[in-house]
Specification:
- With 275 residues, the chain is mostly helical.
- Helix content is 71%, strand content 0%.
- The protein has 13 helices and no strands.
């Protein structure tokens, strides 16, 4: 009995530790954004909740940089990335999982290999390609490298592989062609995975900082993450404004996830094929 209680104490202690590690910095950043001039952000010991709460930091951030303009640019880049990943990874995943063609194993191996290569090592070649296409300083150029993720292709391939072949064979007997089997038989079974791909693509494109920083040199096409970096350059002495900027960038991700979480968890629950 004593050993069982000790095990529970250790489990709860680990949960609290992981909570502090994962949520602590986010909570600190959130409360810092609302701290006013009367709050000592360097106090020892530090305190979390503001004594002088204010929205002035957010107002100042909106006044200093065109947040809405950058917000719109990020939405465009994220929308391009989501469309490319959902369409591209779904078609590629279906082809790799269900179709028979020469060299399929080589293609799968190349996709796995692409996941092992650090993205930073490809930045120079990506920049040269995008520049040669005349897409430097464009939102399409910012979205192009993340247009179809290898991870998302593998996710869709596994999702299509889990569908029993008997369903497609029955549809084939009824006269359905490849596209009819794809849209009417297979696609409805992988909606949950498509939602996961959508969330991954949106969050990845929205949070991307390094590539847009490299490819976008014109202030008018800055994404939100790159544009908010100007707060750091101008107000490095006031961490409250920087914290307000990060909270502004975080809000759309939270809203996006809240909208799609119902479909995400529903897709996970209904992931099994029903007889």
């Amino acid at each position: 009995m004593h050993r069982k209680n000790t095990g529970k104490v250790v489990q709860y202690a680990l949960l609290v530790l992981f909570f502090v590690i994962l949520i602590g910095p986010l909570l600190w950043q959130l409360t810092l954004a609302f701290k006013g001039k009367g709050d000592d952000i360097y106090a020892v010991p530090p305190y979390v909740f503001p004594k002088d709460p204010t929205f002035d930091n957010f107002i100042e951030a909106f006044n200093r940089i065109p947040v809405l303009k950058y917000f719109g640019n990020s939405l465009i880049v994220a929308a391009i990335s989501v469309c490319g990943n959902v369409v591209g990874s779904t078609l590629a995943g279906y082809a790799l999982a269900r179709l028979k063609f020469w060299g399929k194993r080589i293609v799968v191996l190349m996709i796995f290999s692409a996941m092992l290569i650090p993205g930073e090592t490809l930045l120079i070649s990506q920049f040269i390609i995008v520049k040669n296409f005349g897409l430097q300083n464009t939102l399409l150029g910012a979205a192009l490298p993340g247009l179809c993720s290898a991870m998302n292709v593998l996710l869709m391939m596994n999702a299509f592989s889990a569908i029993p072949m008997e369903l497609e064979e029955a549809a084939k007997v009824d006269g359905a062609n490849v596209w009819q089997r794809f849209f009417n038989v297979c696609l409805p079974q992988v909606k949950g995975t498509m939602t996961v791909v959508t969330i991954f693509a949106f969050v990845g494109a929205w949070n991307d900082f390094l590539w847009p920083l490299i490819i976008l040199g014109d202030d008018s096409v800055y994404t939100l993450t790159v544009g908010l970096n100007r707060l750091k350059n101008q107000f490095v002495s006031d961490p409250r404004l920087i914290a307000a900027g990060t909270v502004i960038a975080l809000v759309p991700i939270i809203i996006f996830f809240l909208i799609f979480q119902r479909y995400f968890f529903k897709g996970v629950e209904e992931g099994g094929i029903k007889g």
